[in-house]
Design a protein that fits this description.
By secondary structure, the protein is mostly helical. The chain has helices spanning 19-33, 35-77, 83-100, and strands at residues 2-3, 9-10, 104-106, 109-111. It has a domain at 47-111. The protein is built from 3 helices and 4 strands. A hairpin with a 2-residue loop joins strand 3 (104-106) and strand 4 (109-111).
């Protein structure tokens, strides 16, 4: 810290520690030590963890989308139909069906569900 003649205090820049490099070294150490022993098990554990999160978020979207759809259908009877809210409910239902894998039919269109594997299909 240096003082100027005018009474202004000038703070000198201090060197900050490079936290990005330390984080990179930590990740590299984790990969080098843990992954060779527990790599395949860790892969399935993280997959299960993220699947649980996505299914939970999808169920929340399905619930909110269904509630909005019922509200929008009731609004039709009171002449307060809104295309924007109907599209929002359809979008929430579509995202929820995609995340959970549950097939959902809306106005003749099937959303979500498990997709067949690519290749030859015998019907």
């Amino acid at each position: 810290m240096a003082k100027n003649r005018d009474g202004i205090i000038i703070l000198r820049k201090q060197r900050k520690a490079n936290h990005t490099f330390l984080i990179f070294l930590g990740i590299l150490g984790f990969v080098a030590i843990v992954v060779p022993f527990f790599g395949s098990n860790l892969r399935y554990m993280t997959g299960t963890f993220f699947k649980t999160i996505f299914v939970s978020v999808g169920q929340i979207f399905l619930t909110i989308g269904s509630a909005l759809l019922v509200i929008n259908i009731l609004k039709i009877f009171f002449h307060q139909f809104s295309v924007k809210s109907m599209l929002a409910s359809a979008l929430l239902l579509w995202i929820g069906a995609f995340l959970t894998g549950i097939p959902f039919e809306f106005l003749g269109l099937v959303f979500g569900g498990s997709q067949p594997p690519q290749g030859y299909h015998h019907y």
